[in-house]
Amino acid sequence: MFNIFICVYLTLMNSYYSIKRENWEADLIKLSDLFGIYAATENGHLPEYELVNKANTGKIVYNKPKPSTPLKTFFLPVKENVTADLLPGKQRIIIGVPNCDVSALRLLDEIYLDSSFEDIYYKNKRENTYIIASDCFDILEHCHCVTYNVMPYSDSIADLAIVLKGDEVVLRILSERGEQLLKTHFSAVQVTGKDVISYIETRHREVTEILTRMNKGLPDYRMTGDLVNYADDKVWHHHSQRCVSCGACTAICPTCTCFLLIDKPGFHKVKQMDACQYPGFERVAGGEDSLSELPKRFRNRYMCKYVWKPAKFSGLACTGCGRCIEACIGKINKNEIFRELAK
Q1: Mean pLDDT across the stretch 220-243?
Q2: In what order do the strands lie in the sheet with 16-20?
Q3: What is the DSSP code (8-state) at residue 289?
Q4: pLDDT tens per residue, range 74-97
Q5: Contact 170/162 with Cβ under 8 angstroms?
Q6: I want to staple 112 with a disulfide (CB 3.0 to 4.6 A). Which of 122, 159, 178, 303 is the partner?
Q7: Residue ranges of E strands in 193-314
């Protein structure tokens, strides 16, 4: 048992590298000639992704949730010509991605990298992008990732994870690609002591415990699906009264990816992101529309996330980021609805 513990500890220690913040920022500037580097930076209330340059490296945000724009926008633009020539493009590094967004990629990859109908544009962007996740050491009011078994830190899917401890940037290797990027382009050295690892693991544990307490009474992902599936129609009529069908909840969601294909002159097709909350979302030729009534559209979103997608995919259709609650013009809080259904 002691030997197993030593092996696990050494494995952990070998996956951590550190670099002084000033050297890290200098490396990023050098790398900007080779990569398009985007990082979550200070931008008022919530961080926002910006292209890294000499002027804003000092504004990069570390270990704070969460950029106002979900990660999906880097791979699924609002509009994209899907009949244009597929160009390799410049490789990208995205820094400061919270695990709620990283975990959402599991579902997006299942959908858009399905071998039976692979989206070559999505695949091209994914293969040319390195993701450096950010461990969350702070919490926002509506964060509830842990309720759906999504931790506030990444251990897969992303390539590296980043932690700022004082003036030291600590990078955790999560993939072979991440290890290659780190050792090729950054002047980081391997962590040799246990203090840094202990600090990070303690913060992980503290934030997880706070999130668990904060969301006590909120049903988990599977239970929410059962509650939504069998909820009475009056639930949806009541709660949809404040919905204005703006689609903000779906646009800001890291897993919502419905789209239209629009014909353009020259035999081009443009993929444009759509939302199930828009009137006319399911209208077909002849004017038939199964979601013409607002309560039905309102219910449709929750059925999609908690019933239909779990039946088909292993990736979560809701990772507990809370953006839909924050973005809602009508101040609709889905977690309050689910707590009400759970009573």
Answers
A1: 97
A2: 48-51, 36-41, 92-97, 129-134, 160-165, 168-173, 16-20, 189-190
A3: B
A4: 999 999 999 988 877 789 999 999
A5: yes
A6: 122
A7: 259-264, 268-273
pTM, two decimals, is: 0.92
For residue 270, the one-letter residue type is: V
Peptide bond into 72 cis (omega under 30): no
pLDDT given for residue 287 in this prediction: 86
Structure tokens at 93: 């590094």
**pLDDT score, position 14:** 58
* Burial classification of residue 135, based on how many CB atoms lie within 10 Å of its CB (0-12 exposed, 13-18 middle, 19 or more buried): buried
Nearest CA among 88, 78, 159, 92 for reference residue 120 = 88
Say which range, 112-121, 133-142, 279-288, has the weakest mean pLDDT: 279-288
CA-wise closest residue to 234 among 283, 298, 277 = 298
Q: Are 312 and 199 in contact (CB under 8 A)?
A: no
> Exposed, middle or buried: residue 239 (CB in 10 Å: 0-12, 13-18, 19+)?
buried
pLDDT at 190 over 70: yes
Name residue, tokens 């204005």.
244
What SS3 class is residue 193?
coil
Q: Is the pLDDT of residue 3 over 50?
A: no
pLDDT band (50, 70, 90) for residue 7: very low
Q: Please tell me the predicted confidence (pLDDT) of residue 63.
A: 97
Residue 130: Cβ within 10 Å count: 21
Confidence label for 10 from pLDDT (cuts 50, 70 and 90): very low
Contacts (Cβ under 8 Å, ≥6 apart) of 25: 57, 58, 60
Beta strands in the chain (DSSP E): 16-20, 36-41, 48-51, 79-81, 92-97, 129-134, 160-165, 168-173, 189-190, 259-264, 268-273
Q: Are 93 and 130 in contact (CB under 8 A)?
A: yes
